[in-house]
Specification:
Layout: H1 8-21, H2 28-33, H3 42-46, E1 68-75, E2 81-87, E3 92-97, E4 103-107
Antiparallel strand pairs: 1-2, 2-3, 3-4
């Protein structure tokens, strides 16, 4: 399978986003140790793909029992950023404030009725 050259930066940004979501909250010393935001990524630089590193804006609460996957971000009717992610382990959707990462509730639960889920994705 080949990847369209314009999609490679999007793929790289998505991988960085997911990698950041899988870590614990950054400490001051860890932030200081991070490479410069403009530093080149070796794989993308070798491929000649223009890119920039993006620091994580926030880290959501750690909930390993949820088996979080498939995040989606959009703006609601009032313009606020909302982040949803599937919780495969607990059969629900998790809602977060899209600007701070603070937990903002859950949607659904296990079941087959409307609004219920079985390992959502």
């Amino acid at each position: 399978m080949t990847l369209h050259p314009l999609r490679l930066p999007l793929l790289a940004a998505t991988i960085l986003l997911f990698a950041g979501a899988c870590t614990t909250a950054p400490t001051a010393s860890r932030r200081d140790a991070e490479p410069d935001a403009q530093a080149a990524d070796p794989l993308l630089a070798t491929a000649g793909v223009p890119h920039a590193r993006v620091r994580e804006a926030f880290v959501t609460p750690l909930t390993p029992q949820d088996n979080v996957d498939s995040p989606a971000l959009w703006r609601d009717a009032s313009g606020r950023a909302v982040l949803l992610a599937t919780a495969k382990g607990t059969d629900r959707l998790l809602r977060y404030d899209g600007d701070s990462g603070a937990a903002a509730g859950v949607i659904g639960g296990a079941g087959a009725a409307a609004g219920r889920f079985a390992r959502p994705n």
